[in-house]
């Protein structure tokens, strides 16, 4: 996402226009909006000096933005961590920069309760609160359907915002209550299809999808067990996370 970074926005534009690259580039970014402007040219070079002598690299801008000295090191360490984890075959799953409103989370909880009443006659099986809805939508599923590639198409969302109007949470296993480790985010149509299908059919027909979702729900189980030092989830156990 480049809505808060003018330089990244320029690079993204050139990649798209000059090279036809629209997605698939791994980047390291900060979502903090710049608070400083480029330094005046007279603070870069003294009178009589050639400003080009102060370029960091050829064809790079002369004026710079003041940067806290520790930030480049922090970015470098983050990049090194990402690469080392990838080389070790343990890809990182960093926090999502997506920005959702509280109203969006509240609507997801309302939709879940409505869905439970429609399917089971009551919403007594809903064992999550608004904080767990935030975790599920933002952290676990990143505002995407579990069946969708995690790519925001150009023009699909604005800035760091993301539309969740077509998404709903539904039980992964209909035999268990709607706990934090048994809810999957899908489009309405996908959720209706899922609710009419049993897990054994999904396991047989779509083994990769079944495994991917199971691992994510196992992560939710692990996160909440560790967070409270005990397992608070019904019919669950704090088993170690499986290796992806």
Automatic annotation (TrEMBL):
One of its GO terms (cellular component) is plastid. One of its GO terms (molecular function) is tRNA threonylcarbamoyladenosine dehydratase. GO terms for biological process: cyclic threonylcarbamoyladenosine biosynthetic process. InterPro entries: ThiF/MoeB/HesA. It comes from the Eukaryota. This is Nad-binding rossmann-fold superfamily protein isoform 1. The lineage of its organism: Eukaryota, Viridiplantae, Chlorophyta, core chlorophytes, Chlorodendrophyceae.
């Amino acid at each position: 996402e480049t809505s808060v970074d003018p330089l990244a926005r320029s690079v993204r534009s050139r990649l798209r226009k000059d090279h036809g690259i629209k997605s698939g580039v791994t980047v390291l970014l900060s979502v903090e909006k710049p608070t400083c402007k480029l330094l005046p040219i007279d603070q870069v070079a003294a009178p009589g000096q050639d400003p080009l002598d102060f370029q960091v690299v050829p064809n790079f801008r002369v004026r710079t933005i003041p940067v806290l000295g520790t930030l480049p090191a922090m970015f470098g360490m983050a990049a090194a961590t990402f690469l080392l984890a990838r080389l070790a075959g343990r890809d990182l799953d960093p926090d999502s920069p997506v920005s959702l409103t509280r109203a969006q989370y509240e609507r997801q909880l309302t939709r879940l309760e409505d869905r439970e009443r429609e399917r089971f006659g009551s919403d007594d099986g809903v064992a999550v609160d608004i904080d767990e809805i935030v975790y599920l939508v933002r952290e676990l599923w990143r505002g995407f359907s579990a069946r969708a590639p995690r790519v925001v198409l150009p023009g699909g969302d604005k800035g760091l915002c993301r539309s969740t109007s077509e998404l709903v949470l539904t039980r992964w296993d209909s035999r268990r209550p709607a706990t934090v480790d048994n809810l999957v985010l899908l489009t309405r149509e996908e959720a209706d299809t899922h609710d009419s299908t049993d897990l054994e059919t999904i396991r047989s027909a779509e083994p990769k999808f079944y495994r991917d979702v199971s691992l994510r729900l196992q992560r939710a189980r692990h996160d909440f067990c560790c967070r409270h030092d005990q397992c608070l989830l019904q019919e669950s156990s704090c088993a170690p996370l499986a290796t992806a």
